[in-house]
Amino acid sequence: MIVLASDHAGFYLKEKLKPWLFKNEVQFFDIGAVSYEKLDSYVAYGKKAVDYFLKNCDIKKDKLVLICGSGVGMNIVANRNEKIRAVLANTKKQAVQGRQHNDCNCLCIGARNINFLKAKNIIKTFLQTEFLGEKYLDRINEI
User: Fold this and answer.
1) What is the value of pTM for the model shown?
2) 53 HSE (CA, 13 A, CB side)
């Protein structure tokens, strides 16, 4: 299960991703935005997504995918919660390292930095990559 959210800057990318997720049988819940509203806030949608995720999902198995213009704002909001480890990934390598080394349960992407095809590849990679454990677990516990 994926909890999916965006602000206005990520809205159109999120809407393009939903049919692709459905086609690939990836369950998701869309927190919003439900329409393009130029003055909406990534903070509101990021907090709403994190709250929903923590109340309704398995934080070890399920994932968050948050989209804003740069990915930075959503990343900051998500990482404010101690149960969320968010990676800002504009490349597949960043998504892999976020999962393998940090057991990230949240992927943040910047709709103004990557296109639809790249976003699909990054999300697919993020969902398929496993945490390596061992020494990386010790590092996470240090946080």
Assistant:
1) 0.95
2) 31
